[in-house]
Amino acid sequence: MFNSTRPGGLDGWTIAVEQYDLLVAVILEVIDAFSDEDGSVPLQVIVDEAQRRLGTHSAFPGGRLSNYVRYTKVDLEARGVVERVPRSSPQRVRRVGDGA
């Protein structure tokens, strides 16, 4: 199990390591593949692509990934890997620096 974090030191949630690793890979791949000139991608594109790629994966027996993606994205924000684009509506996400 993996305990995620939230910005500001708020309590996070627990997710299976396999699920987390799969989602991190998809989130970062989607940002790299679908980003606009500012390096950002709409969050809904990430959610949709994760659902397409992982919706039938055995790690996600319920098949619905929207909340898993959003929780993992928030964890990546807290770790400084990705960030929300300020004042974007709908929400957009991009890597921070080199994504490390």
3D architecture notes:
- The chain has a single domain, classed as Arc Repressor Mutant, subunit A.
- Helices cover 43% and strands 14% of the residues.
- The chain has helices at 17-34, 43-54, 66-78, and strands at residues 2-3, 14-15, 40-42, 82-84, 92-95.
- The strands form two sheets. The protein has a three-stranded antiparallel beta sheet. The protein has a two-stranded antiparallel ribbon with strand order 1-2.
- Strand 4 and strand 5 form a beta hairpin.
- InterPro entries: DUF6958.
Brief description of this entry?
Helices cover 43% and strands 14% of the residues.
Order of strands, widest sheet: 3-5-4
As for the number of domains, it is: 1
Give the CATH level 1 class. Mainly Alpha
Measured between the Cα atoms of the first and last residue, the distance is: 22 Å
| CATH topology category name | Arc Repressor Mutant, subunit A
- In what range is the share of β-strand residues? 5-15%
Tell me the total number of β-strands: 5
CATH architecture: Orthogonal Bundle
For the residues shown, what is the average pLDDT?
88
From the spread of the alpha carbons, the general shape counts as globular
Structural class: alpha+beta
Supply Rg. 13 Å
Count of alpha/pi helices: 3
Task: Report the sheet with the most strands, covering strand number, pairing sense and barrel closure.
Answer: 3 strands, antiparallel
Low-confidence stretches: none
Order of helices and strands: EEHEHHEE
Helix content: 40-55%
InterPro entries: DUF6958
Pfam families: DUF6958 (PF22278)
